[in-house]
Amino acid sequence: MPKVRYIFLWWILMVLSTGNTLAQGLMIRNYNVKDGLANATVYDAVQDKEGFIWFSTPTGVSKFDGKRFRNYSQKDGLTDNDVVKLAADSKGRVWFFTLNGLPSFFWNYTIHTSQNDSSLYVDARGQYMQYMFEDYAGFIWFLNTDNRIIQYSGKKTTYDKLGALRTNLFYFLRNDTIFKPRQSYFNLPNLEDANNPDQKIITACTFPLDQTTAQRVRKQPVIVVDNNLYIYNNKEAICFLRGSDWGIRDEISNICVDNDNLWIGTPRTLYYLKGFLRGEKKPVKLLENHYITSLLKDRDGNIWITTFGDGVYNIPYKNFYFNYLDNTNGLFSHSIFSIGKDPKTGLLLIGQNAGVLNTIDSNNRYQRFNLDTSSGRNSILAILPYKPNEMLIGADNGLYSFNTASQRPSLLKRVKTLKDVDISPGGKIRIAAKNQVICDDYIINKEDELITSIACINDSAYYVGTNAGLFYGSDGSRTLKVRTTRPALHLSIKDLKWINGKLWVGTADHGLYVFRGDNSLERHLSTADKLVSDICQQLYYDGIGRLYVATNKGVSVIDVNTENLIRNITSNDGLMSDDARGVYYQHGTLYIATSNGLSYFNDAKMPVDTVPPAIYLNHVRYGDSTYLPGKEFVLMYQRKASFEVEFGAIAYDLPELVEYQYNFSSDTSSGWITTMSNIVPFPDLQPDSYQLQIRARKYKSNWSQPVVINVTILPRWYQQWWARGIVILLGLILVAFVLRDVIRRIQRAEMRKTEYNRRIAELEAKALTNQMNPHFIFNSLNSVQHLIMEKEEKQALNFLADFATLMRQMLNNSRKSFISLEEEIAFLTRYIELEKIRFANVFTYHFLQQDDLKDYTIYIPPMIIQPIVENAIKHGLAPKNGSGRLEVKLVLREDMLYCSVDDDGIGWDRANEIKSGRLVKHESTALSVIRERLQIIKSFNGNVGKLEIIDKFKSGFGNKEGTLVEILIPIVKML
């Protein structure tokens, strides 16, 4: 958005009355090179069919949408950078007039010249185009500096269309039923048409214009001769303005007809003849010492003024509905604190700082009065009608009376830090000072709060607003108190108004409150209810049903009957500033005092622009490619590429407030996305068809009709169905190869497992031959023989039966890879019982089993504990003198079974000393078999077993003797 400079200019009325004359300000924007304009020297301006404003400069042309300039030069296709004139035809083409005489135009986002459009080829013969006309067939006709006619039919450009016969501008003007001029005025040295001797030339100018002449000025081309203006047709040329009669001494270079107004540009000044066609004679002199090169009124009513060296000036259409006063056109200061008007004389009073009071009478004469400023700044805060021909003025350090007939102020009462003043229906004056309420015959002090405002209910009662809440006072009590019917409003109050039995309270930061006469809250209005701001600075009631709330962000208008918001008025609508301090309304004119001057206007005619802006596409990008705008885009998919659309809206008033909405689907019910950005990116679009809709709206306008773009992203070859089929087929083949490899791996694993099982079987066979010591069998048989000889036949039979059962269990278990823990304990119990009989009950035994083992079915390798028990009995307990004890403990540790065999025999080291060589060899073999079996089990499930033999006497168990054997057995699941 180019930064806009606001320049306050004023006009001076031609007819002066006694005293000074009010000069009404006009707000003008300036655009220059820093805003993006191609050059500060601008020759011409034209608006095309879409609504863009084009400016021609010595360094190219600029296309403007109200916010951004797009500049074109020779590198963009112009035949020459020095473009001296512009014209737009009915087809939307913008023609560029250059000194080389080569025709060119902008159309469909492209500059067309003879280099890229053969229909524009022509030999200019050293001459350049001056004027352009269009006939009703759509053909374009040019008149060059050699008075030759060039025709462009759309297919061909023909030089010297009329042959060798030279012609002039009057040829086209005479045939106005055929040719339509593409400009509104023509500068000529004279009006003599040699080919039309019967034409009448009326040089006498009469003013005011009759209705017929005024209508002709609006419709027919105007001829400028020196500083006189004529309307022209093939029968007569009538002068309707003589420059000297209006104080225009310079040659008129350009004009613009704006409704009833006439704009005239000269090499030195711009003249604004307001109401000229209505018969008003109010010339306004603007932009003095500016060379005016062209004038343009756009479709919205905005006026564009191009200059030589000073850029482009723009007067928004709505500014013609407003009048402005500040320190540049008659007021003492731009900071206005209060405003009032005498209803009888119509005298307008404007209160400013430094005790300055400006008055403006009905004849637009103004005067300045200085009130007493000896004790401070003395800003004038309140102006109220008081008595006939008398206004009451409240200033910082006093209360004044102003006689509107004699226009003389007088001091009524000195008041320190006056804040507000109000007059009761019977004429009693109530003053709110910093910490006092001052009435006619008494004063109420309020030291602990800052008093800000006062409102009279009647002649004896009133409300007082403070920075800490709302209070009630009366002449009877002469005190300030809170009404007992409701709690006090504990808010900082800025202003109060009593209207039709209701109290309106404007607060410092909580909006507006309405209370009934019984002090109950009736309504609260805030920004949530569209109030322009919650910071209320002043309340003003116009007496006809409308309350004006002046805030730091503009003015809100409230209907006091319905208590609803009517509208908001801000700087966006034409105010000089949003910081509104006071309001006054009378006979349709609304006055608003701001910190930047006074704005006043006809309240009923305040313009509201509800027409949506024209939205346009600038360009489309996809990946690294840029495309011209269009409605259909078919693009090849690019991985991780962003589809980006840049667009804009044509809005010359408040372009910074234009907002956009877009929807990237055909279903608008899914919701529009709102943005202030004019670029919308869509990253990594997948192959598919999409529809993008974009719309825009201006300040207070409706949404425009959406621009629709259809986008198709085509898939790459590898995204086609046949390519995907090939990929799927290759994937299936790969999966088949992988599955075959997995199956082969499983088969090899099964083969290894079979081999492991075979080795385990071999080891188990070894363990079987080593576990049941032949001495056990031999000694058991001797024990049977001894029992028989002692005539203990029954005990001998029982022993043999148990021995047979034990042998049967041993043979059954030896055929299994795994047995349950219960089976293993049963086998060990029978084995130990036989050993007790064999060794004449020289020891006792005990099994300790963890309770958690009973909750699981646990499988372990068979006969892996029995060799350890056998060693404990045979080599630990049997050699011991006296009885011994054997304890077998079983505990579950995660995925392992902990087993300990504890005896109190002679100990491991001593047993080794007394063993025979045969016994040592047998024992070593048994233990090595157990360790190998544990290692083989690890190769199957990864769990590491453990076997440890501890001599208790040597290992820190005190004086205890014996051996402790610990083994961790992996719990192997059935395979």
From TrEMBL:
Domain named Signal transduction histidine kinase internal region: residues: 764-841
SUPFAM superfamilies: ATPase domain of HSP90 chaperone/DNA topoisomerase II/histidine kinase (SSF55874), Calcium-dependent phosphotriesterase (SSF63829), WD40 repeat-like (SSF50978)
Keywords for the protein's UniProt record, in alphabetical order: Coiled coil, Membrane, Transmembrane, Transmembrane helix
Domain of life: Bacteria
Keyword Nucleus attributed: no
GO cellular component: a single term: membrane
Residue spans crossing the bilayer: 721-743
Keyword Transmembrane helix included in the entry's annotation: yes
Coiled coil: 739-771
InterPro entries: Bact_2-comp_sensor_kinase, HATPase_C_sf, Ig-like_fold, Reg_prop, Sig_transdc_His_kin_internal, WD40/YVTN_repeat-like_dom_sf, WD40_repeat_dom_sf
Gene Ontology MF: a single term: phosphorelay sensor kinase activity
Protein's UniProt name: Two component regulator with propeller domain
